[in-house]
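Hi V.,

You were right to ask for the full record rather than a summary. Here it is.
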Amino acid sequence: MDIKQLLTKTNNVKRSSYVWNAINACVSAMVSPLILIVITRSNPQDLEDAGIFSIAFAVANLLLFLGQYGFRRFQSSDVNERYSFEEYYGIRFITCIAMMAAALGYCIYGSIFKAYSMKKFFVILLICGLKLVQAFSDVIHGRMQQLGRLDVATKSSCTRYIFEIASFCIVYIITHDLLLASCVCVGVSVLVFFITSYNVGRDYCNYKPSYEWQAMKRLFIEGFPLFLSLFLNMYISNAPKYAIDTYLSEDIQALYNLVFMPAYVISLVAHFIFNPILTSYAEVWAKREFRKFRYLVLRQCAVVTGLTVLALAVAATIGIPVLSWIYSVDLSQYKSDLCIVVIGGGMLAFATFFNTVITIVRLHRTLLYSYGATALAALLLSKYFVVNYGITGAVIMYTVLMTGLAIILAVITFLKIGRETKKERLQI
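Predicted structure:
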């Protein structure tokens, strides 16, 4: 059986999609934590590599949204195929080039104004290259999901994540060379992408990009609010890391990321959990079944609440001992910080979910104002909190920002559902 048969074979597409999406979410969420575990346990007395990798991953995750341009949710929920795959595919080349140009610009800026070493310069650039593979494969996976084969997309990406983790960790354990491990990891990621996503995608995608100007212009304009909201969302969640990178040391960066990791995992898992609902929620909204839609939204809110409460209970009891053992770093003084940041991770999960719903109801222009105001607050507050209160200030700022954003997006969502429900009732 060849790789194509392995990735497409299933007895139940819907069940397989949910199962593999959950597996993919977990594996994706573990990329950064597992690599940090290997780095810290290999060099428990020196957290410099952990700090460099942490800021590299934060920058790469931010620029990933430039590469994707927010089109995955838009594409997956485009059930009437207003735009062709060829048009989505053509734009992805442009956004991916822009992503790497921005990565290079950031590294040059860091070298000039933040005194980045050559090692830090190239590690950040390479990790951005790793996320470039994800950004490009995303348009192919979006097409698979649009055609009802999310299972194939998630199997492909899950395979790539596993090989990325394995290649990086093996090379780093053997060599303790962060730059070499990053380089090998990118090469392996590209190879696995062509064997899996690109190869299997031939059955779903026409790899002939379209650059028709009017269609591209409409797509860029329609996608801009969603892209900017997701970009600002990632900036807001990582604002403390950027402030630490500017004003504090690599060691503090590493410690903050070790404490922050559970919140990162919560938000990333929630992000992938929301992926399977895109098409089904869009279909319910298109049928104008607003009461059902509201019920689905409330049900998902209950799921996020349950996950957050569970995570908080774990953080308050065994969180610090477990993290300290996992990373081989004493984190005993950061118990309250961990609990605060887990609440912030839950709030980010809420914000991500309401962002998804607002995209489905095509009210995504309102996201610009919501994320713009929150990002401005992050920009103004980050220096004060981080410089004066260190890690504790960073986690408090993060949680306050995420809570405010989640509340704003929730209000927008339920006002929209309420208005449409009222209109439907009046027409009856």
